[in-house]
Specification:
heterodimer, A: about 260 residues, alpha/beta, seven-stranded mixed β-sheet, four-stranded antiparallel β-sheet, B: about 400 residues, alpha+beta, six-stranded mixed beta barrel, two-stranded antiparallel sheet, about 20% strand
Chain lengths: ~260, ~400
């Protein structure tokens, strides 16, 4: 389990053109290994959402390279990116983003619908797998419930089951507990821990220090560059990626100057 | 995404908004139903005309008098006179029979029933065979009765009903204007032929009409004018030859030239052509109306699909996030538009077929449902759906997943 899932090389993202252009990301270099549980933090405007979108193949860097699971995805077209999202990435959103008036089961099988790979499963197999996934997230009894019949925490668990259905190489969670009360939030975090324990790679975007503390590593962005990487008291063999000069807090390369970014 | 999945998703989307879907389809439903009903009516009319023409026989030539304008102080002169008929019979070869017709209208009384403005048709003995009329009761008048100006009358079917109800009118007398006539026969029901109602007329010897109902001071010099002369052409004789013969004869008799003819000669074929061109014009008008309503229906579909794409922006974002390609999204919305139009087309077909059937049953117009019109209407509906559905589907496909996911 030492394969590199994410590797970025000098990723930048510039919005707008010419004089009014704004750099949201200004040279991001990072690596995430298979099986890691990583948090991306940063104040609003720091570029963490932009980074998440690029890592999730929802948008592309302006320059730089993004190698996902050994494949350079920096220059793919829309359809190819969609296929990468389908096969390699599972999303968990703050607002759950389930299809309304659609059963939990159909929500979980949704990614299978767009699986164009040869390994495509039949509808029956897909349903079976989706039931297993719902079982895994503790909703085995609620496969036919629609989102409005489920609590927020339950909806988020359906979303987690959906994220896992295509056996992705990583799960990207965007503020997964943001819309939940603390108890449901804790349940979701426990579930993510459980998945992590089973070997799932998880990249979580959050602004909540307490939630971030659940992870092995926290990458803190500021003004479009990586500010610090906090090992959260764990040492998980990241030395080959970034040299550890201090136990927990690693200052970044000197050449990554603080950029001023319009809010 | 498999096409089957696309169809399932589209069907579910339509069912989630039943009322809106139905309203969206309304334009298509009306368009398709209109095409089917209109084509059924026009085909029915055509079939009815064809039947009438067949019942008339195809070897008839109609000679009609055309009124020519008289000079100041002069009465207009009617083209045809009674003697022309005899001249045609004797002077043109290939003529099998000649029938003359002159009409007028009068008040008719029988017992205490009075009918105003009843059409009187004076004619000759060949009339029943030339116009394919059968006597239901009693008999038709003969040559002797024409010569003697006998006061006898044959009633049209509806006339007999109106004047005498269910009792037999044979042997009864009716008063036409001031003239008393004996009823000697009743025709069988014939119905409308073209614009002529054969059942609401009374028929009598043409000599009686000349004497009592259309007396003219010019008759003494020119002969009694007649409205129409039917010339039945002998079997195997070229109709055009006979027409040319009649024309030559009448030009000579009337002392006119080919440019100042006071009569017109038409054939069954001319009437068919006129009718056909009329129905063809009617049909192309219908095609335009139907086409416009289908286009309006298509715009309705496009409108609702654009609304639907906007409304479901977030859904599109979710689908894109989990791996739907632009082609997948386009297929989904195009399928939905197509399904709206096809289901609308199906409902429209059912409405059209039952509408044509009910229309045919309730009115006296005949309707013939044409399979080709169903195919045409259905095909155009589907084409309209595909055409007007493409733009909204493409809009959906072009959405940026991040923007779409943020959409509230």
């Amino acid at each position: 389990m030492s394969a590199t899932i994410i590797e970025t090389v000098d990723i930048t993202k510039v919005y707008g053109m010419g004089d009014i252009s704004v750099a949201a990301l200004n040279g991001i270099n990072m690596k995430i290994e298979a099986g890691e549980f990583v948090a991306i933090m940063g104040p609003s405007g720091s570029g963490k959402s932009t980074l998440m979108h690029i890592l999730g193949c929802l948008s592309q860097p302006t320059s730089g390279q993004y190698i996902l699971d050994g494949e350079d995805v920096s220059n793919l077209d829309k359809a190819q990116l969609a296929a990468v999202r389908n096969r390699k990435i599972g999303f968990i959103f703050q607002a759950y983003n389930l299809l309304a008036r659609t059963s939990a089961l159909r929500n979980v099988t949704l990614p299978l619908l767009y699986n164009h790979a040869d390994t495509k499963v039949s509808v029956e197999e897909g349903d079976k797998k989706a039931r297993a996934m719902l079982e895994l997230v503790g909703l085995g009894e609620r496969v036919n419930h629609q989102p409005h019949e489920l609590s927020g925490g339950q909806q988020q668990r359906v979303a987690i089951a959906r994220a896992l259905i295509n056996n992705p190489v990583m799960v990207i969670a965007d503020e997964p507990t943001g819309n939940l009360d603390s108890r449901s939030g804790e349940e979701i975090m426990n579930l993510l821990h459980k998945l992590h324990g089973q070997g799932t790679t998880i990249v979580m975007v959050t602004h909540d220090q307490k939630i971030a503390a659940h992870t092995q590593r926290t990458i803190v962005l500021k003004d479009g560059v990586i500010d610090i990487i906090n090992h959260n008291g764990n040492h998980v063999g990241q030395d080959d990626i970034l040299p550890v000069s201090e136990r927990n807090i690693i200052p970044l390369h000197n050449e990554q100057k603080v950029q001023h970014e319009a809010a | 995404m498999k096409p089957l999945e696309a169809i399932r998703i589209a069907w579910e989307a339509i069912l989630k908004n039943k009322v809106r879907s139905l309203l969206t389809m309304l334009g298509i439903i009306i368009g398709v139903a209109a095409v089917i009903i209109m084509v059924a009516i026009s085909a029915g009319t055509e079939a009815a005309i064809q039947d009438q023409i067949t019942s008339l026989g195809s070897n008839l030539v109609f000679v009609q008098g055309a009124m020519t304008r008289g000079g100041p102080g002069q009465a207009p002169t009617g083209g045809l006179v009674y003697d022309d008929a005899a001249a045609i019979q004797d002077g043109v070869s290939g003529v099998k029979a000649v029938v003359v017709e002159q009409n007028s209208s009068e008040t008719v009384k029988a017992g205490d029933v009075t009918l105003e403005d009843v059409e009187i048709l004076g004619t000759t003995t060949g009339f029943p065979s030339v116009r394919d009329m059968d006597i239901a009761e009693g008999r038709y008048f003969n040559e002797t009765e024409i010569e003697r100006k006998s006061k006898v009358v044959i009633l049209g079917y509806a006339m007999a009903q109106e004047l005498f109800g269910d009792s037999s009118p044979i042997g009864e007398y009716i008063k036409v204007g001031n003239t008393q006539l004996a009823v000697i026969g009743v025709f069988e029901e014939k119905g409308l032929v073209g614009n002529t109602d054969f059942d609401s007329r009374i028929y009598m010897p043409i000599s009686v009409v000349f004497q009592k109902f259309t007396p003219s001071m010019f008759a003494r010099f020119m002969g009694d004018s007649v409205r129409m002369i039917y010339v039945e052409v002998e079997d195997g004789v070229n109709q055009d030859t006979v027409i040319a013969g009649i024309e030559r004869l009448l030009i000579k008799r009337h002392d006119v030239t080919a440019d100042t003819e006071d009569f017109t000669i038409t054939t069954q074929q001319d009437i068919i052509s006129t009718r056909e061109s009329t129905t063809a014009a009617f049909r192309s008008l219908l095609a335009w109306v139907a086409g416009v309503s289908l286009i309006v229906g298509g715009i309705g579909i496009m409108n609702i699909m654009l609304v639907s794409v906007t409304e479901r922006t977030r859904e599109i974002g979710i689908r894109q996030a989990v791996g739907a390609t632009p082609a997948d999204i386009r297929l989904q919305f195009l399928t939905e538009a197509l399904m709206l139009s096809v289901v609308g087309g199906l409902i429209g077909t059912l409405v059209g077929i039952s509408g044509a059937y009910i229309f045919g049953a309730l009115s006296d117009m005949r309707t013939v449902i044409q399979a080709s019109s169903i195919l045409l209407a259905f095909g155009s509906a589907a084409a309209v759906g595909a055409f007007f559905g493409y733009y909204p589907a493409d809009q959906a496909a072009q959405l940026d997943p991040i923007e779409a996911l943020r959409y509230e």
